[in-house]
TrEMBL record:
Protein name: Glycerol-3-phosphate dehydrogenase [NAD(P)+]
This protein's UniProt keywords: Cytoplasm, Lipid biosynthesis, Lipid metabolism, NAD, NADP, Nucleotide-binding, Oxidoreductase, Phospholipid biosynthesis, Phospholipid metabolism
Class of enzymatic activity (EC top level): oxidoreductase
Pathway terms, separated by semicolons: Membrane lipid metabolism; glycerophospholipid metabolism
Glycerol-3-phosphate dehydrogenase NAD-dependent N-terminal domain boundaries: 2-155
Protein backbone atom coordinates (compact mmCIF):
# COMPACT_ATOMS: atom_id res chain seq x y z
CA UNK A 1 0.00 0.00 0.00
CA UNK A 2 1.12 3.59 -0.69
CA UNK A 3 0.84 5.64 2.48
CA UNK A 4 1.36 9.40 2.76
CA UNK A 5 1.90 11.18 6.05
CA UNK A 6 1.38 14.95 5.84
CA UNK A 7 3.52 16.57 8.52
CA UNK A 8 7.11 15.68 9.44
CA UNK A 9 7.06 16.75 13.07
CA UNK A 10 7.86 14.35 15.88
CA UNK A 11 4.65 12.30 15.64
CA UNK A 12 4.20 12.35 11.86
CA UNK A 13 7.79 11.21 11.34
CA UNK A 14 7.42 8.50 13.99
CA UNK A 15 4.23 7.07 12.48
CA UNK A 16 5.70 7.31 8.96
CA UNK A 17 8.81 5.43 10.15
CA UNK A 18 6.72 2.60 11.60
CA UNK A 19 4.47 2.31 8.54
CA UNK A 20 7.50 2.45 6.19
CA UNK A 21 8.66 -0.91 7.54
CA UNK A 22 5.91 -2.64 5.52
CA UNK A 23 4.48 -0.07 3.10
CA UNK A 24 5.73 2.46 0.53
CA UNK A 25 5.62 5.58 2.68
CA UNK A 26 6.08 9.24 1.83
CA UNK A 27 6.20 12.01 4.41
CA UNK A 28 5.44 15.63 3.50
CA UNK A 29 7.63 18.16 5.30
CA UNK A 30 6.73 21.84 5.29
CA UNK A 31 10.43 22.65 5.49
CA UNK A 32 12.21 21.73 2.18
CA UNK A 33 15.58 21.41 3.94
CA UNK A 34 14.08 18.87 6.32
CA UNK A 35 12.71 16.77 3.44
CA UNK A 36 16.22 16.70 2.01
CA UNK A 37 17.76 15.63 5.33
CA UNK A 38 15.23 12.81 5.68
CA UNK A 39 16.02 11.60 2.13
CA UNK A 40 19.79 12.03 2.21
CA UNK A 41 20.73 11.30 5.82
CA UNK A 42 17.63 9.51 7.17
CA UNK A 43 17.36 11.86 10.12
CA UNK A 44 14.96 14.54 11.37
CA UNK A 45 17.18 16.82 13.46
CA UNK A 46 14.46 19.47 13.82
CA UNK A 47 11.93 17.31 15.67
CA UNK A 48 13.63 13.97 16.46
CA UNK A 49 17.29 14.73 17.05
CA UNK A 50 19.41 11.66 17.69
CA UNK A 51 17.10 9.14 15.97
CA UNK A 52 17.79 7.25 12.74
CA UNK A 53 14.88 6.84 10.33
CA UNK A 54 14.28 3.93 7.94
CA UNK A 55 16.10 4.33 4.62
CA UNK A 56 12.87 3.38 2.80
CA UNK A 57 11.08 6.46 4.12
CA UNK A 58 10.79 9.06 1.34
CA UNK A 59 10.21 12.76 2.06
CA UNK A 60 9.05 15.62 -0.13
CA UNK A 61 8.13 19.26 0.44
CA UNK A 62 5.69 19.15 -2.50
CA UNK A 63 2.14 18.45 -1.36
CA UNK A 64 0.94 17.37 -4.83
CA UNK A 65 3.74 14.82 -5.25
CA UNK A 66 3.13 13.57 -1.70
CA UNK A 67 -0.60 13.00 -2.08
CA UNK A 68 -1.49 12.23 -5.71
CA UNK A 69 -0.68 8.50 -5.60
CA UNK A 70 -1.58 7.85 -1.95
CA UNK A 71 -3.89 4.98 -1.03
CA UNK A 72 -4.03 6.07 2.60
CA UNK A 73 -3.58 9.66 3.79
CA UNK A 74 -2.47 10.45 7.35
CA UNK A 75 -2.57 14.07 8.54
CA UNK A 76 -0.02 14.92 11.24
CA UNK A 77 0.07 18.71 11.41
CA UNK A 78 -1.17 20.50 14.54
CA UNK A 79 -4.87 21.38 14.67
CA UNK A 80 -4.28 25.08 13.87
CA UNK A 81 -2.73 24.14 10.49
CA UNK A 82 -4.94 21.12 9.78
CA UNK A 83 -7.66 22.75 7.64
CA UNK A 84 -5.25 24.84 5.60
CA UNK A 85 -2.93 21.93 4.75
CA UNK A 86 -5.81 19.58 3.98
CA UNK A 87 -7.50 22.21 1.79
CA UNK A 88 -4.27 22.59 -0.19
CA UNK A 89 -3.92 18.80 -0.50
CA UNK A 90 -7.58 18.23 -1.50
CA UNK A 91 -7.28 18.71 -5.29
CA UNK A 92 -4.61 15.98 -5.41
CA UNK A 93 -6.18 13.40 -3.08
CA UNK A 94 -7.30 10.30 -5.03
CA UNK A 95 -11.02 9.42 -4.74
CA UNK A 96 -12.35 7.73 -1.63
CA UNK A 97 -9.05 6.89 0.09
CA UNK A 98 -9.26 6.80 3.90
CA UNK A 99 -7.90 9.82 5.78
CA UNK A 100 -6.58 9.48 9.33
CA UNK A 101 -5.99 12.39 11.72
CA UNK A 102 -3.11 12.15 14.18
CA UNK A 103 -3.83 15.61 15.61
CA UNK A 104 -5.03 16.00 19.17
CA UNK A 105 -6.78 19.32 19.07
CA UNK A 106 -9.97 21.17 18.20
CA UNK A 107 -10.37 23.93 15.63
CA UNK A 108 -10.56 27.43 17.10
CA UNK A 109 -13.60 29.36 15.90
CA UNK A 110 -15.57 26.40 14.46
CA UNK A 111 -14.99 24.17 17.54
CA UNK A 112 -14.73 21.20 15.15
CA UNK A 113 -12.94 17.92 15.70
CA UNK A 114 -10.31 16.99 13.10
CA UNK A 115 -12.39 14.17 11.56
CA UNK A 116 -15.22 16.67 11.11
CA UNK A 117 -12.85 18.87 9.10
CA UNK A 118 -11.87 15.85 6.99
CA UNK A 119 -15.55 15.13 6.33
CA UNK A 120 -16.20 18.75 5.41
CA UNK A 121 -13.28 19.01 2.97
CA UNK A 122 -13.28 15.45 1.64
CA UNK A 123 -16.91 14.25 1.81
CA UNK A 124 -17.29 10.55 1.11
CA UNK A 125 -13.77 9.63 2.28
CA UNK A 126 -13.63 7.42 5.39
CA UNK A 127 -12.33 9.65 8.21
CA UNK A 128 -10.52 8.22 11.24
CA UNK A 129 -8.49 9.33 14.24
CA UNK A 130 -5.41 7.61 15.64
CA UNK A 131 -5.04 8.49 19.29
CA UNK A 132 -3.86 7.10 22.63
CA UNK A 133 -0.97 7.28 25.10
CA UNK A 134 1.72 7.70 22.45
CA UNK A 135 4.79 9.76 23.27
CA UNK A 136 6.60 9.81 19.93
CA UNK A 137 10.17 9.35 21.11
CA UNK A 138 9.35 6.29 23.24
CA UNK A 139 7.63 4.65 20.28
CA UNK A 140 10.44 5.48 17.87
CA UNK A 141 12.95 3.99 20.29
CA UNK A 142 11.00 0.72 20.17
CA UNK A 143 9.21 0.77 23.53
CA UNK A 144 5.88 -1.04 23.66
CA UNK A 145 2.73 1.06 23.43
CA UNK A 146 -0.96 0.79 22.63
CA UNK A 147 -3.09 3.10 20.54
CA UNK A 148 -6.59 3.28 19.04
CA UNK A 149 -7.81 3.77 15.50
CA UNK A 150 -11.29 5.25 15.72
CA UNK A 151 -13.81 5.35 12.92
CA UNK A 152 -17.54 4.65 12.87
CA UNK A 153 -17.28 1.79 10.37
CA UNK A 154 -15.53 -1.09 12.14
CA UNK A 155 -14.71 -2.77 8.81
CA UNK A 156 -12.66 0.29 7.83
CA UNK A 157 -11.17 0.47 11.36
CA UNK A 158 -10.04 -3.14 11.12
CA UNK A 159 -8.42 -2.54 7.71
CA UNK A 160 -6.56 0.49 9.10
CA UNK A 161 -5.57 -1.48 12.21
CA UNK A 162 -3.90 -4.01 9.91
CA UNK A 163 -1.87 -1.26 8.17
CA UNK A 164 -0.80 0.45 11.40
CA UNK A 165 -0.22 -2.51 13.73
CA UNK A 166 3.53 -2.96 14.24
CA UNK A 167 5.38 -5.35 16.59
CA UNK A 168 5.43 -3.34 19.78
CA UNK A 169 2.68 -0.87 18.78
CA UNK A 170 -0.61 -2.53 19.61
CA UNK A 171 -3.49 -0.93 17.69
CA UNK A 172 -7.03 -1.31 19.03
CA UNK A 173 -10.17 -0.22 17.16
CA UNK A 174 -13.06 1.90 18.46
CA UNK A 175 -16.24 3.14 16.75
CA UNK A 176 -16.64 6.06 19.21
CA UNK A 177 -14.84 8.76 17.23
CA UNK A 178 -16.26 11.64 19.31
CA UNK A 179 -15.14 10.10 22.60
CA UNK A 180 -11.67 9.25 21.28
CA UNK A 181 -11.06 12.71 19.76
CA UNK A 182 -12.38 14.64 22.78
CA UNK A 183 -10.24 12.55 25.15
CA UNK A 184 -7.13 13.18 23.01
CA UNK A 185 -7.71 16.92 22.77
CA UNK A 186 -8.76 17.73 26.33
CA UNK A 187 -6.08 15.67 28.07
CA UNK A 188 -3.62 18.31 26.84
CA UNK A 189 -5.41 21.00 28.87
CA UNK A 190 -5.38 18.83 31.99
CA UNK A 191 -1.69 18.08 31.38
CA UNK A 192 -0.97 21.82 31.56
CA UNK A 193 -2.76 21.86 34.93
CA UNK A 194 -0.82 18.78 36.12
CA UNK A 195 2.45 20.37 34.97
CA UNK A 196 1.58 23.53 36.89
CA UNK A 197 1.14 21.39 40.01
CA UNK A 198 4.61 19.99 39.44
CA UNK A 199 6.11 23.45 38.94
CA UNK A 200 4.38 24.84 42.01
CA UNK A 201 5.42 21.84 44.10
CA UNK A 202 1.90 21.48 45.48
CA UNK A 203 2.24 17.72 46.01
CA UNK A 204 1.19 14.42 44.49
CA UNK A 205 -2.21 14.28 46.21
CA UNK A 206 -3.14 17.59 44.59
CA UNK A 207 -1.82 16.42 41.24
CA UNK A 208 -3.88 13.21 41.49
CA UNK A 209 -6.98 15.25 42.37
CA UNK A 210 -6.50 17.52 39.36
CA UNK A 211 -5.94 14.58 37.00
CA UNK A 212 -9.03 12.77 38.31
CA UNK A 213 -11.27 15.84 38.23
CA UNK A 214 -9.80 16.56 34.81
CA UNK A 215 -10.98 13.17 33.61
CA UNK A 216 -14.42 13.99 35.03
CA UNK A 217 -14.50 17.21 32.94
CA UNK A 218 -13.36 15.36 29.82
CA UNK A 219 -16.06 12.72 30.36
CA UNK A 220 -18.79 15.30 31.02
CA UNK A 221 -18.02 17.26 27.87
CA UNK A 222 -17.36 14.17 25.75
CA UNK A 223 -20.61 12.45 26.69
CA UNK A 224 -22.57 15.71 26.25
CA UNK A 225 -21.16 15.84 22.70
CA UNK A 226 -22.25 12.25 22.01
CA UNK A 227 -19.24 10.20 23.12
CA UNK A 228 -19.68 7.00 25.15
CA UNK A 229 -18.70 7.13 28.84
CA UNK A 230 -16.72 3.85 28.63
CA UNK A 231 -14.36 5.41 26.06
CA UNK A 232 -13.04 7.89 28.65
CA UNK A 233 -11.88 5.04 30.91
CA UNK A 234 -9.87 3.57 28.03
CA UNK A 235 -6.61 4.25 26.20
CA UNK A 236 -7.77 7.47 24.52
CA UNK A 237 -9.16 8.84 27.80
CA UNK A 238 -7.54 7.85 31.04
CA UNK A 239 -4.61 6.16 29.28
CA UNK A 240 -3.53 9.24 27.37
CA UNK A 241 -4.31 11.52 30.30
CA UNK A 242 -1.95 9.52 32.51
CA UNK A 243 0.87 9.37 29.96
CA UNK A 244 0.68 13.10 29.26
CA UNK A 245 0.26 14.27 32.85
CA UNK A 246 3.03 12.00 34.17
CA UNK A 247 5.71 12.20 31.51
CA UNK A 248 8.42 14.89 31.49
CA UNK A 249 8.50 14.25 27.70
CA UNK A 250 5.05 15.83 27.30
CA UNK A 251 5.14 19.32 25.78
CA UNK A 252 1.83 20.27 27.44
CA UNK A 253 3.01 19.19 30.88
CA UNK A 254 6.26 21.08 30.21
CA UNK A 255 4.33 24.30 29.47
CA UNK A 256 2.38 23.91 32.71
CA UNK A 257 5.48 23.14 34.72
CA UNK A 258 7.24 26.28 33.42
CA UNK A 259 4.17 28.40 34.19
CA UNK A 260 4.15 26.91 37.68
CA UNK A 261 7.76 28.02 38.11
CA UNK A 262 6.74 31.57 37.23
CA UNK A 263 7.86 31.77 33.59
CA UNK A 264 5.86 33.83 31.07
CA UNK A 265 3.79 31.87 28.53
CA UNK A 266 5.29 33.73 25.55
CA UNK A 267 8.81 32.90 26.69
CA UNK A 268 7.94 29.24 27.27
CA UNK A 269 6.31 28.84 23.85
CA UNK A 270 9.02 30.88 22.15
CA UNK A 271 11.67 28.46 23.41
CA UNK A 272 9.82 25.41 22.04
CA UNK A 273 10.16 24.07 18.49
CA UNK A 274 7.17 21.72 18.87
CA UNK A 275 3.48 22.31 19.47
CA UNK A 276 1.63 22.21 22.83
CA UNK A 277 -1.96 21.79 21.66
CA UNK A 278 -3.53 22.37 25.09
CA UNK A 279 -2.71 26.10 24.91
CA UNK A 280 -5.22 26.54 22.06
CA UNK A 281 -7.61 23.79 23.13
CA UNK A 282 -8.42 25.29 26.56
CA UNK A 283 -10.48 28.11 25.07
CA UNK A 284 -12.28 25.81 22.62
CA UNK A 285 -13.16 23.47 25.51
CA UNK A 286 -14.56 26.41 27.48
CA UNK A 287 -16.74 27.43 24.50
CA UNK A 288 -17.95 23.84 24.05
CA UNK A 289 -18.68 23.66 27.79
CA UNK A 290 -20.76 26.85 27.55
CA UNK A 291 -22.64 25.38 24.60
CA UNK A 292 -23.52 22.30 26.66
CA UNK A 293 -24.12 24.10 29.97
CA UNK A 294 -21.04 22.61 31.67
CA UNK A 295 -18.82 24.68 33.99
CA UNK A 296 -15.52 22.76 33.30
CA UNK A 297 -13.62 24.57 36.09
CA UNK A 298 -10.18 23.19 35.23
CA UNK A 299 -10.44 24.20 31.56
CA UNK A 300 -11.72 27.64 32.60
CA UNK A 301 -8.87 28.11 35.05
CA UNK A 302 -6.22 27.07 32.55
CA UNK A 303 -7.74 29.43 29.99
CA UNK A 304 -7.45 32.28 32.51
CA UNK A 305 -3.77 31.45 33.05
CA UNK A 306 -3.20 31.36 29.28
CA UNK A 307 -4.96 34.72 28.90
CA UNK A 308 -2.72 36.15 31.64
CA UNK A 309 -5.68 36.82 33.94
CA UNK A 310 -4.40 34.46 36.63
CA UNK A 311 -0.97 33.32 37.76
CA UNK A 312 -0.41 29.58 38.15
CA UNK A 313 -0.40 30.00 41.94
CA UNK A 314 -3.66 31.96 41.95
CA UNK A 315 -5.15 29.35 39.63
CA UNK A 316 -4.45 26.63 42.18
CA UNK A 317 -5.84 28.78 45.00
CA UNK A 318 -8.99 29.28 42.89
CA UNK A 319 -9.44 25.57 42.20
CA UNK A 320 -9.13 24.92 45.95
CA UNK A 321 -11.99 27.33 46.63
CA UNK A 322 -14.47 25.57 44.35
CA UNK A 323 -17.11 24.03 46.64
CA UNK A 324 -16.89 20.23 46.82
CA UNK A 325 -20.29 18.68 46.26
CA UNK A 326 -21.13 15.18 45.06
CA UNK A 327 -18.31 13.58 43.06
CA UNK A 328 -20.70 13.18 40.12
CA UNK A 329 -21.56 16.91 40.04
CA UNK A 330 -20.05 18.87 37.12
CA UNK A 331 -17.89 21.21 39.29
N1 LIG B 1 4.66 14.16 19.51
C1 LIG B 1 3.89 13.25 20.07
O1 LIG B 1 4.34 12.50 20.94
C2 LIG B 1 2.45 13.15 19.66
C3 LIG B 1 1.78 11.94 19.91
C4 LIG B 1 0.45 11.81 19.55
C5 LIG B 1 -0.21 12.87 18.93
N2 LIG B 1 0.44 14.01 18.69
C6 LIG B 1 -0.30 15.08 18.01
O2 LIG B 1 0.11 15.12 16.65
C7 LIG B 1 0.02 16.45 16.14
C8 LIG B 1 1.35 16.85 15.57
O3 LIG B 1 2.26 16.81 16.65
P1 LIG B 1 3.82 16.70 16.50
O4 LIG B 1 4.32 16.26 17.81
O5 LIG B 1 4.23 15.94 15.31
O6 LIG B 1 4.13 18.27 16.32
P2 LIG B 1 5.51 18.95 15.99
O7 LIG B 1 5.41 20.32 16.55
O8 LIG B 1 6.63 18.08 16.38
O9 LIG B 1 5.50 19.04 14.39
C9 LIG B 1 4.47 19.69 13.70
C10 LIG B 1 4.64 19.49 12.20
O10 LIG B 1 3.58 20.20 11.54
C11 LIG B 1 4.15 21.26 10.78
N3 LIG B 1 3.32 22.44 11.01
C12 LIG B 1 3.24 23.18 12.13
N4 LIG B 1 2.36 24.17 11.96
C13 LIG B 1 1.89 24.05 10.71
C14 LIG B 1 0.99 24.79 9.93
N5 LIG B 1 0.36 25.85 10.43
N6 LIG B 1 0.76 24.39 8.67
C15 LIG B 1 1.41 23.33 8.17
N7 LIG B 1 2.27 22.58 8.85
C16 LIG B 1 2.51 22.95 10.10
C17 LIG B 1 5.57 21.47 11.26
O11 LIG B 1 6.36 21.98 10.22
C18 LIG B 1 5.93 20.04 11.67
O12 LIG B 1 6.30 19.31 10.54
C19 LIG B 1 -0.42 17.32 17.32
O13 LIG B 1 -1.79 17.52 17.24
C20 LIG B 1 -0.07 16.47 18.54
O14 LIG B 1 -0.93 16.75 19.64
C21 LIG B 1 1.76 14.18 19.02
O1 LIG C 1 3.90 16.03 24.12
P1 LIG C 1 2.40 16.20 24.21
O2 LIG C 1 2.00 16.87 25.48
O3 LIG C 1 1.86 16.85 22.98
O4 LIG C 1 1.77 14.74 24.27
C1 LIG C 1 2.12 13.80 23.31
C2 LIG C 1 1.08 12.72 23.16
O5 LIG C 1 -0.16 13.26 22.83
C3 LIG C 1 0.97 11.80 24.35
O6 LIG C 1 0.06 10.78 24.05
Amino acid sequence: MKVTVVGAGSWGTTVASLVAKRHDTTVWAREPGLAQQINDMHVNPLYLAGFSLPERLVATADLKTATETAQLLIIAVPSHGFRDVLRRACPHVPPWIPVISLSKGLEQGTLLRMTEIIRELLPGHPAAALTGPNLAKEILSGKAAATVVATEDLTVATALQEVLHRGLLRVYVNHDVIGCEIGGALKNVVAIAAGMAEGLGVGDNTRAAVITRGLAEITQLGTAMGGESTTFAGLTGMGDLLATCMSPQSRNRHVGERLGRGHRLDDVLGAMCSVAEGVRTAGVAVELGDRHGLPLPICHTIQHVIDGKLSARDAYEGLRNIPAGHEADPW
